Amino acid sequence: MWRAPENAGNIYLVQIGTFLSYPIIKDELIPQHLLRRTPRPREVVFTLTLGQLEMLYTTWAAARMRVRQELYEPNLPIPHYPLPPAWPDETRAMIVLWIARERRVFEMEMRELEYLLGLRGAR
């Protein structure tokens, strides 16, 4: 638990993020849930099995093929979507987080590509 600094007065202001601030009396403990922060993408650890990861990458490849077909061969019929697997809630949440992380990584890669090609301002 976090405690107020010893040299603080009796009451001082604590700001959490940019939206919450409230007075704290010295020696009063701040609840741990107020000190938690959202983890950064590199701090997130995914607990998916090897089989689940293989299925994700295989499905991702199938999605890329469908998109390429839509873009480059729009006159061909697109096959129907297969039935999705039934995921337990915890696995489904991990997959949602994994997809969000992969999307963020892709966006970072494209931004770097733009910098390297001189299409964005210098950093």
Describe this structure in words.
- With about 120 residues, this protein is mainly α.
- It has three helices and two strands.
- The chain has helices at about 30-35, 50-70, 90-115; strands spanning about 10-15, 20-25.
- The longest helix is centred in the last third of the chain and has 28 residues, at about 90-115.
- The protein is flat.
**Which secondary-structure class do the elements indicate?**
mainly alpha
Give a count of the beta strands, DSSP E runs of length 2 or more.
2
Main sheet: which strands, in order across?
Answer: 1-2
Largest sheet, in brief, is: 2 strands, antiparallel
Question: What shape does the CA trace take?
Answer: flat
Radius of gyration from the alpha-carbon trace, in angstroms: 24 Å
Percentage of β-strand residues? 5-15%
As a percent range, the share of helical residues equals 40-55%
What's the mean pLDDT score? 76
- Segments where pLDDT lies below 50 for 5+ residues? 8-24
- Number of helices, counting only DSSP H or I runs of 4 residues or more: 3
Distance between the termini: 39 Å
What is the succession of H and E elements?
A: EEHHH
